[in-house]
Amino acid sequence: MRALATTWILCGHFLDWRSHRGLFTGFLARGNVPVCYYIVLSGFVTHWAYGKHNFALHAPELQSFFRTRLGRIAFSYYFFFGLGLVQRVMDDWPLSPMCTGLGALMLEAWDPACEIVIQSFTWPSAYAQYGPGPNPAGWTIGTLVFCWVCYPVLAVTLHRAVGPPGEGRWQQLLGLAIVAYVLAVLPPLMMLRMNAHRPDGQRIPALTMQYLEEFPPCRLADFSLGVLTAALMKLPGATEWTGWPLVGWGAALTLVALVLCAPLQLPKLPGHLRHDAEALMVSGPSALWALMIAAMASPHTWLARHPMLIRVGQYSFAAYLLQFWLAHIFVELQKCASGHKHGLQPWWMLAFIFCVWTLASVYTECVELPFVRVLRGTIGWVQSFHRAMPGQL
């Protein structure tokens, strides 16, 4: 599922779907939909792995949580951040000082909020004269970092409100999950209702759409939905229900039908962001993603447990981070070969996807996994050192 979601994101970002309209245009153009999957999945995996930890203030569990969650992520994030920075400097591309500075702190997701503040005190064009940061994909990591920082508070609150993991009542958890979903989709619904009298493109402007998609607090409800889904699946007997495969396939088919059939409001020019009702696609499918993730947690959903699919899914993080760096190379090659510069043509896109996954697998196997082994060994040595010298450090 992670591999399919990442490939969908690649198509939404770089495929020239403006010049090739067809049956699957609505599907391929909405690369923001699978981003919601990753945020919900992160909440699910985080609570599935750490739901029983006692996140008391200054507790060792809290330190271990942040060390584990951020260690592997930070290495790959800064590796591709530096790669993108070198590429943009060598090509003499403009860089946004604000976006680059925030990206260096893993806070690039806060850039839309800073942009709104800056435009409130300066001319609107003062900020737009700069390009994006070294790695435009980094905003997703910044959003997840914010959610991970909030997770210990969410876990403690959930524990006090419902009870220990595996002992809560499903009615309470289901009610909280519904509340989380309503909070996720309520902002764009309210904006569309209040701005219904405005012309197209001004009901939810492009910058506001970007704010709803990238601003970390706006995505906390999606993350919380994943946390609550994991809490539901931890209840006794939840994963043993034999109907989960039907639920998963039903949610998947519903999502595909929704994305294909919903009217697509295409940007007028290449590079312009989506607007108006497209904002509903930011968090609207989160409930369907949650159902699919819950179904994949069941032992009866055998397809999601194939070792080869799991292995390919491990490369998805690297594929997501290197996409813009490699896409710049492919766009330049295509421009030299055919003069086309707005998105990748289909054959170029196939070659691009193949290269992305090939490089992602090489990086993961030869760089990231060796680093993870060293990191785990170092953490284990430090922990054993602390246990051997109690009260002396």
Automatic annotation (TrEMBL):
Highest taxon of source: Eukaryota
Record-annotated membrane-spanning stretches: 31-50, 70-90, 137-158, 170-190, 246-266, 278-297, 317-334, 346-363
Keywords, comma-separated and alphabetical: Membrane, Transmembrane, Transmembrane helix
Protein name: Acyltransferase 3 domain-containing protein
Species per Swiss-Prot/TrEMBL record: Chrysochromulina tobinii
Lineage of origin: Eukaryota, Haptista, Haptophyta, Prymnesiophyceae, Prymnesiales
